[in-house]
Design brief:
heterodimer, A: mainly beta, B: 115 residues, mainly beta, six-stranded mixed beta sheet, 55% strand, globular
Chain lengths: 115, 115
């Protein structure tokens, strides 16, 4: 088991609502990346936070936003939910900015269903 | 464009046999890293093995080995002595650097191990 924990594990929301997903990074890790995994697909990079600042962003609209806190935990916020936002959201933590020379540790994911 | 291709949607293997999961990649970078992850039905991405582009020897981690053929841009995962618990989705991923580092994933291969 990794030290990365995500909450909640499952969530059901209505189209148009807003949602906040949380991730606690592994001890000693200062970089958190978020990925969206639609059913039957591989994960897609959403964005990355390093020392409380957004360090990079994938091809996702601005209604996907995030935060990183001084303890390096992170939140993913999605506004104006759409049906296509239904997916497994994965958080990965690593040590040093984007230093993915070794493994990035993933959490167990949050499964979001938008109805 | 940096891309990972996994052409096998599903693979079947009998317990105790070896299996090879295919992965090809496309990048113009000289420095990159290749990863394999296992994703059981619970959703967590479990790191299996890593190969750096400058590593001359194929990576091995217990029953997992990575058959790295740089000229052919392939990074196949070999699982020896399959176990029932190996049944899961397997994702090949590549570390890409676009000013920051992130993982680009393939679409995955579902492995089923039968008794």
């Amino acid at each position: 088991e990794t030290g990365v924990t995500q909450s909640p594990t499952h969530l059901i929301k209505t189209r148009g609502q807003q949602v906040t997903l949380r991730c606690s990074s592994q001890s000693g890790h200062n970089t958190v990346s978020w990925y969206q995994q639609a059913l039957g697909q591989g994960p897609q990079f959403i964005f990355q936070y390093y020392r409380e600042e957004e360090n990079g962003r994938g091809n996702f609209p601005p209604r996907f936003s995030g935060l990183q806190f001084p303890n390096y935990s992170s939140e993913l916020n999605v506004n104006a939910l759409e049906l296509d936002d239904s997916a497994l959201y994965l958080c990965a933590s690593s040590k040093d900015r984007g230093r993915v020379n070794t493994e990035a540790f993933f959490g167990q994911g949050t499964r979001l269903t938008v109805v | 464009a940096q891309k990972i291709t996994q052409t096998q949607p599903g693979m079947f293997v009998q317990e105790k046999e070896a299996v090879t999961l295919d992965c090809t990649y496309d990048t113009s970078d000289q420095s990159y890293g290749l990863f394999w992850y296992k994703q059981p039905s619970s959703g967590e991405m479990i790191f299996l093995i890593y190969q750096g582009s400058y590593d001359e020897q194929n990576a091995t981690e217990g029953r997992y080995s990575l058959n790295f053929q740089k000229a052919r841009k392939s990074a196949n995962l070999v699982i020896s002595a399959s176990q029932l618990g190996d049944s899961a989705m397997y994702f090949c991923a590549m570390r890409v650097n676009t000013g920051f580092q992130k993982l680009v994933f393939g679409t995955g291969t579902r492995l089923l191990v039968s008794p």
